[in-house]
């Protein structure tokens, strides 16, 4: 007591009571902060799961849409191929029919020419005059007009048009992919860290 007679003194019990209040207040602040952090943790965890679900849904939708697009292109390819084959068949059938007619006409002409050749070698005038009426060969040619063959190579243009279509699809796809890429890159989990707004908030955070 002599050593501290000029000092302000308090009893140990009173000091303990004061410090106990400070301790309880600090514990309350820690518990409050723990609750806040646990809430933030849960919100962030939910955001991560939601982000994963959204990404998976986007992947599935993209796969479905691209599959449909591939099927549509495949149908278009089949349609163009079938169109070409049908037109080829029609044109070839018409040409082959005419080929058959021309072949038959050539055989008839050769046969008649042979008959005329045989008739021309008969020396007996009476026999010549007797045979002539029985021949089916007219003395004046009645051949049909000549045929001019024009081959329209329109299938070359088809290949060019298909190539142009593919180029347009590729250019369109590049532009749209760039848009999609920008949208994907902007899909983020945004975490906002708030700084203490007041002096009291700053002291409160510092005490923790």
Automatic annotation (TrEMBL):
Keywords: Coiled coil, Metal-binding, Zinc, Zinc-finger. The keyword Flavoprotein does not apply. Residues 15-24, 33-52 have a biased composition (Basic and acidic residues). InterPro entries: E3_ubiq-ligase_TRIM/RNF, TRIM8/14/16/25/29/45/65_CC. Residues 85-119 form a coiled coil. Residues 1-57 are annotated as: Disordered. Residues 34-172 form the TRIM8/14/16/25/29/45/65 coiled-coil region domain. PANTHER family: B-BOX DOMAIN CONTAINING, E3 UBIQUITIN_ISG15 LIGASE TRIM25-RELATED. This is TRIM8/14/16/25/29/45/65 coiled-coil region domain-containing protein.
């Amino acid at each position: 007591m002599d050593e501290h007679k000029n000092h302000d003194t308090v009893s140990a019990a009173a000091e303990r009571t004061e410090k106990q209040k400070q301790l309880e207040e600090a514990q309350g602040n820690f518990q409050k902060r723990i609750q806040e952090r646990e809430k933030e943790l849960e919100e962030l965890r939910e955001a991560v799961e939601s982000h994963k679900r959204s990404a998976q849904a986007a992947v599935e939708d993209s796969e479905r849409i691209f599959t449909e697009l591939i099927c549509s292109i495949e149908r278009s390819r089949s349609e163009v191929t079938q169109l070409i084959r049908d037109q080829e068949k029609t044109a070839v059938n018409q040409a082959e029919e005419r080929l058959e007619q021309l072949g038959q006409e050539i055989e008839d002409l050769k046969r008649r020419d042979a008959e005329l050749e045989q008739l021309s070698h008969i020396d007996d005038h009476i026999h010549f005059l007797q045979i002539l009426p029985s021949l089916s060969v007219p003395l004046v040619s009645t051949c049909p007009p000549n045929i001019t063959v024009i081959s329209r190579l329109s299938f070359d243009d088809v290949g060019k048009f298909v190539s142009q279509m593919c180029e347009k699809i590729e250019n369109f796809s590049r532009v749209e992919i760039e848009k999609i890429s920008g949208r994907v890159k902007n899909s983020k989990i945004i975490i906002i860290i708030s700084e203490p707004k007041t002096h009291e908030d700053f002291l409160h955070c510092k005490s923790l």
